[in-house]
Amino acid sequence: MDKLKNAIREKGRVLSTEVLKVDSFLNHQIDVDLMMSVGEELARRFQTDSITKVLTIESSGIAPSMTAARDLGASLVFARKKKSLTMNNDVFVSQVYSFTKQETNDITVSKDFLNKNDRVLIIDDFLANGQAAFGLIDIVQQAGATVVGLGIVIEKSFQDGRQRLEDQGYRVESLARVHSLENGQVTFVDELQL
Ligand code: 5GP
């Protein structure tokens, strides 16, 4: 998606060969217009898949999931990273190791918002090693629901998340696929043959 790749090129900051900072449009300040376009494109790719729920994880997955859910006519549910005081104990829980924070956290989703009839599109801001994705998949499986696929805003293709997901048969749609962050530069997978 060109608009997204341009934003990454112009506003992204390469923090290391493994970490890309996109605080100015996705992870802290939000470019609403861009995130609406991102959600629309994710919805377009899953338009014919009868999605009933979009499942993401707070907080950065929420913005791109909103227009995706709207366009798919689906509800949007986000997994919480901290259990809310108003949440009762009827929750699905999974453990996720955070790539950026380097710690393991429980993520929770109320049993009220996922059931066995749901066809779920999982959306996240980044795909690195797939820990967040597998945590969300685990929750969908606990509910007895179906994972239809994963929609990712920025995939770091030099890490093994996509491979691990595809090895287990999951469909992964990523709007920007980063081939490398070497030498402080972002290169994208689809630029390699140019
Ligand atoms: P994974 O679980 O696939 O290893 O990592 C994905 C999660 O870690 C995402 O939800 C995202 O929050 C965070 N993440 C991984 N890599 C990056 C990165 O390069 N930049 C930012 N801003 N977040 C990342």
UniProtKB/TrEMBL annotation:
Stored InterPro entries: PRTase-like, PRTase_dom, Pur/Pyrimidine_PRTase, Xanthine_PRibTrfase
Record-linked CDD domains: PRTases_typeI
Coiled-coil intervals: none
Job description of the protein: Converts the preformed base xanthine, a product of nucleic acid breakdown, to xanthosine 5'-monophosphate (XMP), so it can be reused for RNA or DNA synthesis.
Pfam families reported in the protein's UniProt record: Pribosyltran
Binding partners and assembly: Homodimer.
Protein name: Xanthine phosphoribosyltransferase
UniProt keyword annotations, A-Z: Cytoplasm, Glycosyltransferase, Purine salvage, Transferase
Catalytic reaction annotation: XMP + diphosphate = xanthine + 5-phospho-alpha-D-ribose 1-diphosphate
GO cellular component terms, A-Z: cytoplasm
EC number: 2.4.2.22
Pathway: Purine metabolism; XMP biosynthesis via salvage pathway; XMP from xanthine: step 1/1
Residues that bind 5-phospho-alpha-D-ribose 1-diphosphate: A128, N129, G130, Q131, A132
GO MF annotation: an example: xanthine phosphoribosyltransferase activity
Binding site for xanthine: L20, N27, K156
Protein family according to the UniProt entry: Belongs to the purine/pyrimidine phosphoribosyltransferase family. Xpt subfamily.
GO biological process, one term: XMP salvage
Phosphoribosyltransferase domain residues: 39-159
Keyword Transferase among record annotations: yes
Entry's localization field: Cytoplasm
Predominant place of localization: cytoplasm
